[in-house]
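Look at a sample.

——
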Amino acid sequence: MRILFLGDVVGQSGRKLVVDTLPDFRRKYRVDFVIVNGDNAAHGFGLTPGICRDLFSAGADVITTGNHGWEHPDIRPLLNEEPRLVRPANFPNGAPGAGCGFYTLPDGRKVGVMHVQGRVYMEATDNPFKAVGDWTERLKLGRDAQAMVVDIHGEATSEKMALGQFCDGKVSLVVGSHTHIPTADAQILPNGTAYLTDAGMCGCFDSVIGMDKKEPVSRFVTGLRNEKFQPVKGDATVCGVLIDTNDKTGLAERIYMIRYGGRLQESLPPL
């Protein structure tokens, strides 16, 4: 199975590039399943039902969220109604929506997706390791699903890497989101799980993590807040990761960094 994960979509520029190019990318590279992190898609913070519809129409099979997923109140009912929209699983009981999903492809193959939020330098949540551990006890790779993916939305590289090692051999892919900067450590771990610390963002890199650079730079220089962060308008880059898995075991066989558009060096899989 070929699975594409796209990092945090940031603002209009990132959203437009994903919506405009994902259908062709999916056909050209014969992608079976697409996961998009939409945590910053609505003007840099959260997402809306309309944006979800646009991403699904463009070819996203699942949208994950993160710490900004609750920013727009109108998204909360959709979290309860739309199983393809997944929030972090390690939020307390009573939070709207679900933190994992189980999806069937047209050919009958099954994919499990789990989303958790890190705890280091992030808002307090329940233990992401316990949430993922409980999930992989219930759902077995190769038996119940042909692929299983974990999106960890977090700041600390150490926490993400530890979760990758914790999941090695139990899931197809552990990929980080949230920092908006693509890391260079795409790899297949010893027991067959593909891993990437952070997929980066789908947004404009002539910025500070997708925001217009004037205000962030000013805050670092002066220590003062002058205005709200605004997502930058400019040429965006799509960042993500693509994996090929073995349908019998569910384990990864190949992993490719994905980057195209904008100012970052292009990285695409062979045709």
